Amino acid sequence: MPEAPKNTLKPTTDYNLELKNKKTLQFIEDVTSNADEVQKKVLEEILSRNAHVEYLQTRGLNGHTDRETFKKTMPVITYEDIQPHIDRIANGDTSPILSSNPISEFLTSSGTSGGERKLMPTIEEELGRRSLLYSLLMPVMSQFVPGLDKGKGMYFLFIKSEAKTPGGLVARPVLTSYYKSTHFKDRPYDPYTNYTSPNETILCPDSYQSMYSQMLCGLCQHKEVLRVGAVFASGFIRAIKFLEKHWRLLCNDIRTGTIDSQITDQSVREAVMKILKPDPKLADFIEAECSKDSWQGIITRLWPNTKYVDVIVTGTMSQYIPTLDYYSNGLPLVCTMYASSECYFGVNLNPLCKPSEVSYTLVPTMAYFEFLPVQRNNGVTSSISVPKTLNEKEQQELIDLVDVKLGQEYELVVTTYSGLYRYRVGDVLRVAGFKNNAPQFNFICRKNVVLCIDSDKTDEVELQNAVKNAVNHLLPFGATLAEYTSYADTTTIPGHYVLYWELSLNRNTPIPPSVFEDCCLTIEESLNSVYRQGRVCDKSIGPLEIKVVEPGTFDKLMDYAISLGASINQYKTPRCVKFAPIVELLNSRAVSSYFSPKSPKWFPGHKQWSNNN
Ligand code: AMP
Fold this sequence. Notes:
By secondary structure, the protein is of the alpha+beta class. Helices cover 35% and strands 20% of the residues. The chain has a domain at 450-595.
């Protein structure tokens, strides 16, 4: 299998950037040219080293490592299928259940099961694989934008809280795990990982202090910044909004060369003080720009050498493209990679392409990939769907990486080094082209997700349950919910969920606003842990809103859908709307609007773990 280029060089003396980039690009050529052989070897390696783990033994794989036997023997699964095994590991069973390597920690996915984050087992060496994927990004990028080694990246990166499972394993999001690892903290010299944010500011657990200090450092080094970004578009916009709110304080710090007293974390203060110098001229400049009426192009105004904005704007994040275009004056929006807690998948080899054309090349060394063909029904008549269990024939017919067909859509299924076997990730991808023999995929959607503002993913079943709980508040008033739908409103920053409710009123008892506010809060309390964390901790989601619409609104909605070609027999009210004219129709018929009066409850860790608060 082609070896990944190693990054062990020291600054300046023996650092040959050109050579390193060349080696990295050659690695991509090699693995994509030999994609099928690499995949075969990856599967052999995973299965041979794990031949004796309980999960493979009990299913009768008997040490086979070939694709055919694997496909015949092993079921295609979802999280719920392995949850009992995960729970045993979480409760302290250290026997080789899923992996022969010790499970080093759990990565908490933003995908949820039973309202709680899914727990993905991982092993120590997986960090190396993640680092490898990161190391591919800048050599690819520098083919299109030269000179990026001459300045810095202003990236807003954050850690989230972590919990311990009852058995004592750490459970935290994958990026928190990565930023806290030596792979990130003690990264060897590389001009491409030269960030304006000192590690201490990224690793600060207090999100306000972390954001404040990263913004301060980014402003101080504004001329050196060549690229800006965050992981997701929503996170970057949150940073701009933060600047809008706090620029006076930040300017004061820059003017005086001191840090605001709200920044109490000593290590953050020390790290920032190495960068911050009194600079009244810079403070005047920032003040002048920030106090202008329009914030259009604020990124290029404050960071004039920025060449692109590095954020994920594919999938649900595409809703943020207009806002990013506004703040950045149309700088290229670059989506570099596609990854998850289960496994890091691939990179965008044509990073300056339009957001709508982004495709990710799956890197064949990362995991063994299979593809389940998907037939999508059209969005207007979407209905509650749960992953369908596959019969034996369907399980055997999953398609290998090099055999996918151009234009076809597939659900991604992975077998990873850390103990997932034929696991359905839940993402739908479409083949957009090939790099040598490796397919390149457009990210289409995550299955079943109807609402998403940040990293939250709310599906129809969760929404339905939450609404069911909330409408109990209406019963004493003789009111029932005739119809509802929802909308992820990102015109506010942070964005928020809006529910459109049409009521049937059976009595003339007026319903006080506080009742609807209770409904809002009950819905929030009923939504999954990732949503509630976004509301409480990260403040990345705003209070949920209920808009009561005039009687007859949903009939109008149906008329409209039918006028667009929906079948009258099959029409079902969409539980989420995105199409602007439909949102306009609903808004134009709203008679009142109510917001959640406070944040819902949230605790780190799973609710069933006793040590979670
Ligand atoms: P998590 O497990 O919380 O890290 O979330 C991983 C999920 O985020 C993936 O399975 C995708 O649904 C989504 N995701 C990750 N990278 C991208 C991307 N580049 N474009 C669109 N969605 C992405």
